[in-house]
C-alpha cells in the first residue's frame, strides 16, 4: 500500500458520539459515502448523491444502518488520504505494535446503468502481527425505513428491500444474522482481505480490488492540477490545503452532467440540537458557479465548461419560459419538495431530519450574477465556448433587467418575506457588468449601450439606498441597517476598489460586529428560524481575501493559518464552525467552504508573488 501522509489521530471525548471530523469522504463522481475512523461507513446514498440512503447511522445511531470493517480489538485510529487522491486510509494502532490498515474508495464507474455507479471497495491489511478482523453489513434502505433480507448468490450475497438491491462480496466468511451480514477472519501479516459492495445485483467489473485501487489512484493523481500550472506555483506553503480542496470539489461533481452538488449530506445541524438542518445534495446554481470559477483558476477548464454547458443546454419549459432556478438535481431535474423524516433521531439529536429543500421555490436574484460571472471568466479561457448559447445568456440578462427592482430571498435563503438585500442588488450589477463584457466581445453595440445604462442605474441604487453614511458601511438591506457578511463581496466582484472608504468601513464593521478572531457570522438578525448557528466559513475566507487584497497581508496570513487549523485532520471543511467550542457544524464536507479557501489562497499568492500568475493556466489549451 502507498505510504500515507502525516496522519493526525482524533479521539472522541468519553461519552460522546463521533463528530464530523471523525469521518472521511470517498466518492466516484456519481455519489459519495462517509467513512468513520472506527471503520464504519455511516452515510451512503446509492447509486446517486440524492438517492435515498442505504447507510444512515450518521443520522440515527440505532436504526440508521452501516457497513463496518475493523479489528475486533479496540485501538487508537487515525485517517489520512493517499497522496493526491480521494482514496482514504484508516490506520488502527493495536497492542504489541500491530497495525491494521484499511483502504476505502469508490472505483470510477465505466458501465452503463445504475448498477455500475455505486460500488465501494474496502481493503484491509495486517502489519506487524495477526489481526482478528470483523465485518458487519447492515443496510437500511429508503432512509432506514426498510431492513434487508439476504439471499446467497455465490460468491457473495444479495440484500433486498421492496425495490432496492445491494450485492456484497468479501474474503471474510459472511453469514446472515437477522437483517445483518456478519463474519470474522484472522488476518495474517502481509495479507489483505477485501469487502466489496454495490448497488444492484451484479458486480459490474472483472477487475480485482487491487486493479481497481491502481486505476482509481491513477485517475485522481492524474487529475489534480499539474506542477507547471500558475496556481501550483503560487500555492507554496498552502499546497496541501489547496490540493485537498481541489480534490473535494471534483469529488462533488457529477460525471454525466458536469454539475456540482453543494455537499454529500443532509441535516447535519448548523448548531447542536438545532433546527437549521438542510439537505444539500443538490446543485445550487450559485455554489456550482463558484465551483466552476475556482476550477478555472486552477486550470480545470473542462470541468467549468461542462457545468456551464449543462445549465445552458437544459430544455426550456413547455410554455416557452426559460427561468433559471435556484437549484436542480444533478441530472437537471427539479429538486424534490422538502419533507421531514420523523423516524430518524438526527445527528446528535438535531431534528427535524429533512430531505428535499424548500428553497427550490425561492426567487434569488444573485444567481444570475454568479452564473454570468462564471460565463465571462470561461470566455477568457475559451473565447468561442458560449457562442452557441448567446440567446439564452441574453434572455437571462433581460430577466435581470426586468426583475432587479424586485425583492428576493437573498444569498442566505431567508425563510421569511422577500426583501431588497444589498448583496442581491450587487449581483444584479455583476450580471449586467459581465453581460456587457460578453456583448462587447460579440460585437453587439446595442446591447452594450442598453445594459451599461441599466448597470449604472443599479450602481446608483446601491450607493444611495444600500449605503449608510451615518455608520460608514453598507447595509444588509435597504430597510435594514444591520451588518451582513455578504457585503464582503462588494470589492471582490469589482464593484468598488478595496481602498474605497466605504469598503474599508464595511470591512471594519464586519470585523467588529460579526467576527470572532478569523471566524465570521453571516449576520445577527431575525431570519424566521429558531436558535443560533455557527460562524460561516466561506465568509471567513472572504474576509481573508479582502484583507490580502487591501494590503493587510500579515493579518490575512495569520487568519488564513488559523482557519486551516480549524479544518479536520483530513483537511475537510464543514459549512460552519463554533470557534468557542472548536467544533464543526453544518453539512460536511461543504464545497462552498473549500471554494472560499481556494480563492483566499489565490489572493495570498497574488499578493506575495504576483509574477507567478503570469501566462495562461497549463490546462487552458486542453
Helix and strand topology:
Blueprint: E1 8-9, E2 23-27, E3 32-36, E4 40-45, E5 53-55, E6 66-71, E7 76-81, E8 88-93, E9 99-105, E10 119-127, E11 131-138, H1 141-144, E12 146-147, E13 149-153, E14 156-160, E15 165-170, E16 175-177, E17 180-187, E18 192-199, H2 209-223, H3 230-235, H4 239-251, E19 283-284, H5 285-297, H6 301-312, E20 327-328, E21 339-340, E22 354-355, H7 366-381, H8 390-403, H9 422-442, H10 445-465, E23 467-468, E24 473-474, H11 489-492, H12 501-513, E25 515-516, E26 519-520, E27 535-536, H13 537-549, H14 553-565, E28 576-578, E29 583-585, H15 591-608
Antiparallel strand pairs: 1-7, 2-3, 3-4, 4-5, 4-6, 6-11, 7-8, 8-9, 9-10, 10-18, 11-17, 13-14, 14-15, 15-18, 16-17, 19-20, 21-22, 23-24, 25-26, 27-28, 28-29
Helix pairs in contact: 4-15, 5-6, 5-7, 5-15, 6-7, 7-9, 8-9, 9-10, 13-14, 13-15, 14-15
Q: Can you give keywords for this protein?
A:
622 residues, alpha+beta, Beta-galactosidase, Chain A, domain 5, Glycosyltransferase, 2 domains, eight-stranded antiparallel beta sheet, 15 helices, 29 strands, 32% helix, 20% strand, disordered N terminus, disordered C terminus
Oligomeric state of the chains? single chain
CATH second-level architecture of the largest domain: Alpha/alpha barrel
Major sheet size, sense and barrel closure? 9 strands, antiparallel
The top-level CATH class of the largest domain is Mainly Alpha
Number of strands: 29
Mean pLDDT, as a whole number? Answer: 92
**Beta fraction of the residues?**
15-25%
Rg measurement, Å:
24 Å
Outline type:
globular
Amino acid at each position: 500500500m502507498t505510504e500515507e501522509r502525516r496522519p493526525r489521530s482524533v479521539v472522541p471525548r468519553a461519552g460522546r458520539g463521533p463528530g464530523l471530523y471523525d469521518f472521511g469522504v470517498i466518492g466516484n463522481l456519481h455519489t459519495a459515502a462517509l467513512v468513520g475512523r472506527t471503520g464504519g461507513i455511516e452515510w451512503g446514498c446509492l447509486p446517486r448523491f440524492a438517492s435515498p440512503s442505504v447507510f444512515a447511522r450518521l443520522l440515527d445511531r440505532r436504526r440508521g444502518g452501516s457497513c463496518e470493517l475493523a479489528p475486533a480489538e479496540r485501538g487508537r485510529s487515525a485517517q489520512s488520504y493517499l497522496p493526491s487522491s480521494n482514496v482514504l486510509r484508516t490506520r488502527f494502532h493495536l497492542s504489541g505494535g500491530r497495525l491494521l490498515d484499511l483502504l476505502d474508495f469508490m472505483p470510477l464507474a465505466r458501465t452503463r446503468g445504475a448498477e455500475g455507479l455505486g460500488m465501494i471497495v474496502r481493503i484491509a491489511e495486517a502489519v506487524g502481527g495477526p489481526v482478528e478482523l470483523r465485518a458487519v453489513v447492515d443496510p437500511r434502505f429508503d432512509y432506514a425505513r426498510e431492513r434487508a433480507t439476504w439471499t446467497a448468490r455465490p460468491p457473495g450475497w444479495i440484500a433486498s428491500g421492496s425495490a432496492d438491491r445491494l450485492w456484497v462480496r468479501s474474503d471474510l466468511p459472511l453469514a446472515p444474522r437477522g437483517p445483518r451480514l456478519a463474519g470474522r477472519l484472522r488476518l495474517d501479516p502481509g495479507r489483505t482481505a477485501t469487502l466489496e459492495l454495490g448497488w444492484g445485483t451484479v458486480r459490474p467489473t472483472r477487475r480485482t480490488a487491487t486493479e481497481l485501487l491502481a486505476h482509481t489512484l491513477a485517475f485522481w493523481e492524474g487529475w489534480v492540477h499539474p506542477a507547471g500550472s500558475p496556481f501550483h506555483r503560487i500555492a507554496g506553503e498552502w499546497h496541501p490545503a489547496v490540493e485537498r480542496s481541489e480534490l473535494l470539489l471534483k469529488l462533488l461533481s457529477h460525471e454525466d452532467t458536469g454539475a456540482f452538488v453543494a455537499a454529500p449530506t443532509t441535516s447535519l445541524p448548523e448548531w447542536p440540537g438545532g433546527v437549521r438542518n438542510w439537505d444539500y445534495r443538490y446543485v445550487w446554481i450559485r455554489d456550482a458557479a463558484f465551483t466552476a470559477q475556482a476550477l478555472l483558476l486552477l486550470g480545470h477548464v473542462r470541468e467549468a465548461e461542462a457545468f456551464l454547458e449543462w445549465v445552458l443546454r437544459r430544455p426550456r419549459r413547455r410554455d416557452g419560459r426559460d427561468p433559471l432556478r435556484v437549484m436542480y438535481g444533478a441530472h437537471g431535474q427539479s429538486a424534490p419538495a422538502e419533507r421531514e423524516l420523523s423516524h430518524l433521531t438526527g445527528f446528535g439529536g438535531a431534528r427535524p431530519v429533512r430531505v428535499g429543500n424548500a428553497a427550490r421555490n425561492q426567487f434569488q436574484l444573485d444567481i444570475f450574477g454568479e452564473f454570468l460571472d462564471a460565463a465571462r471568466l470561461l470566455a477568457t479561457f475559451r473565447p468561442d465556448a458560449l457562442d452557441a448559447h448567446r440567446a439564452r445568456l441574453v434572455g437571462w440578462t433581460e430577466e435581470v433587467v426586468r426583475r432587479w427592482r424586485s425583492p428576493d430571498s437573498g444569498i442566505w435563503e431567508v425563510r421569511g418575506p422577500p426583501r431588497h438585500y444589498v448583496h442581491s442588488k450587487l449581483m444584479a450589477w455583476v450580471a449586467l457588468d459581465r453581460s456587457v463584457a460578453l456583448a462587447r466581445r460579440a460585437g453587439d453595440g446595442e446591447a452594450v449601450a442598453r445594459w451599461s445604462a441599466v448597470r449604472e442605474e443599479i450602481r446608483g441604487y446601491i450607493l444611495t439606498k444600500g449605503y449608510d453614511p451615518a455608520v460608514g458601511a453598507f447595509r444588509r438591506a435597504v430597510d435594514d441597517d444591520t451588518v451582513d457578511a455578504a457585503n464582503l463581496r462588494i470589492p471582490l466582484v469589482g464593484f468598488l476598489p478595496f481602498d474605497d472608504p466605504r469598503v474599508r468601513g464595511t470591512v471594519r464593521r464586519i470585523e467588529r460586529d460579526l467576527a470572532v478572531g478569523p471566524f465570521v457570522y453571516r449576520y445577527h438578525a431575525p431570519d424566521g428560524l429558531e436558535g443560533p448557528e455557527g460562524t460561516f466559513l466561506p465568509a471567513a475566507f472572504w474576509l481573508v481575501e479582502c484583507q490580502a487584497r487591501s494590503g493587510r497581508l500579515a493579518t490575512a496570513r495569520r487568519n488564513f493559518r488559523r482557519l486551516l487549523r480549524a479544518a479536520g485532520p483530513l483537511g475537510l471543511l464543514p459549512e460552519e464552525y463554533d470557534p468557542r467550542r472548536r467544533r464543526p457544524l453544518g453539512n460536511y464536507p461543504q464545497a462552498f467552504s473549500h471554494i472560499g479557501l481556494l480563492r483566499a489562497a489565490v489572493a495570498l499568492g497574488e499578493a506575495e508573488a504576483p509574477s507567478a500568475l503570469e501566462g495562461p493556466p497549463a490546462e487552458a489549451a486542453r
